[in-house]
TrEMBL record:
InterPro entries: Peptide/Ni-bd, SBP_5, SBP_5_dom. One of its GO terms (molecular function) is peptide transmembrane transporter activity. PROSITE patterns: PROKAR_LIPOPROTEIN. Residues 79-448 form the Solute-binding protein family domain. GO terms for biological process: peptide transport. Belongs to the bacterial solute-binding protein 5 family. Gene3D superfamilies: Dipeptide-binding Protein, Domain 3, Periplasmic binding protein-like II. One of its GO terms (cellular component) is ATP-binding cassette (ABC) transporter complex. Keywords: Signal, Transport. Residues 1-22 form the signal peptide. This is Peptide ABC transporter substrate-binding protein.
Length: 529
């Protein structure tokens, strides 16, 4: 579900600058005192309300301020109780969680099983196009048995992934006394309602400019107590300014997303440390199957296959990303269990004009094919422009395509892409949990988050089979079949996969602990001094 970006700082007014200084304090060695840390990011928040967001920027905020039934503590992918005392299958289609005693939201309201059931039910009911409802496709119902017991009834038995869904964008527990059941709450309303129960609450907030987080003394969950009382997050619209501020000590931590050139430069800079963690990020092109070029489905498929035969991922990796991203030849990146490389097998590693031309001619597609490709300027990293200029050059070098590139800032981008505005567009993905299913079901199941009009009964059957198969070898074989089908149909075109990167001043500890395979950035891991 998640992403990257780049970024003049969005904080332009003197009022906000004063607010930032007041929030952060001062220090000779960084943006905050020992009791405060300043984090810089280019990741924007779509919505604090879990029902209205399914992106990395929003999830980072949600991880800090909401409790989940289960969580991944730092350094592990083992599910650990958070608000729950325990969770387990009580039947093949029944998953039961018992809550801890004395849970409450920061506004004083009790946190009960009724709030839990409300939280999951409203995500499905609201079904916001930018929300995580697709993750709950196997949830038939959820209900509070009593104040401490919540029971999930599943559509398919033996769901191997459902426990991990509880830790995703679909998992935050909200206060049913303050959150509306039928619409997404605005960020300003969410902050005012203070229905937070995670390790931090939000004390000050200016959307996609500055947020000040305060340690929640009542939190006693899987992420551990906050080591730092105040964390201020500043959102940048230009990664160059993010790089300068971490290098100059004006902020303490830079997390998502600096350009590969900036990361390489910071490795040699004094006073900072560059930390890397396990990868899993996927960069890819999405096709809107309704509005993309082509007179019929056969022509549209031929165009997608011809594009797949015309790209040189290694060249993009080397020239644009300096090797910080590597070629991706599957919907499931290398390193994940069961990952294969069917795009390499079917379309090759290097552009093959003859193969691409045959796909088009066999389907009666006239060339050059006009392609309108939309990409994002502030969410998927500072090198996105270079990346898509390289894609354009490679496609046009075959003589088979004429490419028009357009770019849009993410606030607009996230809204327009689900309105059939873009026929072909860029997306990026960080997994919700460390399992290959998370690169398949959210993309290709019915009601998938891509909103690309892709739905295939055979694919749906494969996804259901792998997600309920308790035999490891059999399950991985099915995951291989699904990857092959994606390569045959090309609803997406995988490009690159990359590692997690976080940069901190020398006096910051804990960044390396949170860059783990669970893909959770935890403020509770950070300390200073």
């Amino acid at each position: 579900m998640k992403n990257i970006r780049r970024g003049p700082i969005v904080l332009a007014s003197s009022v906000l600058a004063t607010m930032a200084l007041a929030a952060c304090g001062s220090s000779d060695s960084g943006g905050g005192s020992g009791d405060s840390i300043v984090i810089g990011t280019t990741d924007k928040v779509v919505a604090i309300d879990p029902a209205g967001s399914y992106d990395n920027g929003s999830l980072t905020v949600q991880t800090q301020v909401y409790q989940y039934l289960m969580q991944f503590p730092e350094g592990t992918t083992d599910l650990t109780p958070d608000a729950a005392e325990k969770c387990d299958f009580s039947g093949p289609k029944e998953y039961t969680c018992t809550l801890k005693d004395g849970l409450k939201f920061a506004n004083g309201h009790a946190l009960t099983a009724s709030d839990v059931a409300f939280s999951f039910n409203r995500i499905v009911k609201i079904n916001d196009p930018n929300g995580p409802a697709s993750l709950l496709g196997n949830m038939d119902s959820v209900a509070a048995k009593d104040d401490k017991t919540v029971v999930f009834t599943l559509k398919a038995a033996n769901d191997q992934t459902f426990p991990q869904i509880l830790v995703t964008s679909a998992g935050p527990i909200v206060d049913e006394e303050t959150y509306p059941a039928d619409k997404v709450m605005s960020d300003e309303e969410a902050v005012k309602a203070n229905g937070f129960s995670g390790p931090y609450t939000i004390a000050k907030y200016d959307k996609n400019q500055l947020a000040q987080f305060k340690a929640n003394p009542d939190y006693d969950g899987a992420l551990g107590k906050a080591k730092v009382k105040t964390i201020t997050q500043k959102v940048y619209s230009d990664a160059n300014n993010l790089k300068l501020d971490i290098q100059n000590g004006d902020i303490d931590v830079a997390y998502r997303s600096l350009t590969p050139t900036d990361v390489d430069s910071l490795k040699k800079a004094k006073g900072v440390k560059v930390h890397t963690g396990p990868g899993g990020e996927l960069r890819y092109i999405v096709f809107n199957l309704k509005t993309m070029p082509g007179d019929d489905d056969d022509q549209k498929l031929a165009i997608r296959q011809a594009m797949a035969s015309s790209l040189d991922r290694q060249e993009i990796s080397d020239q644009v990303y300096k090797g910080t991203y590597t070629p991706a030849y599957s919907a499931v990146p290398q390193g994940q269990p069961g990952a294969t490389e069917p795009f390499k097998d079917m379309y090759g590693e290097k552009p093959d004009k003859a193969k691409a031309e045959k796909y088009l001619s066999d389907a009666g597609v006239k060339t050059p094919v006009s392609l309108n490709i939309e990409y994002n300027t502030d969410h998927y990293g500072g090198a996105s422009t270079e990346e898509y200029n390289a894609v354009k050059r490679q496609l046009e070098a075959t003589g088979l395509f004429k490419v028009k590139l357009d770019s849009t800032e993410y606030d607009t981008y996230s809204e327009e892409r689900v309105k059939d505005t873009y026929p072909i567009f860029q997306l990026g993905w960080y997994p919700d949990f460390p399992d290959p299913d998370n690169y398949l079901t959210p993309f290709f199941a019915p009601n998938n988050f891509l909103q690309s009009h892709y739905e295939d009964d055979a694919m749906t059957a494969l996804l259901k089979k792998e997600s309920t198969d308790s035999d490891k070898d059999s399950r991985l074989a099915t995951i291989g079949e699904a990857q092959k089908m994606v390569a045959e149909q090309v609803p997406i075109l995988p490009l690159l996969t990359g590692a997690q990167v976080g940069i901190g001043r020398d006096d910051i500890q804990g960044i390396e602990k949170t860059l783990d395979p669970s893909f959770k950035f935890r403020f509770t891991s950070l300390s200073k001094g």
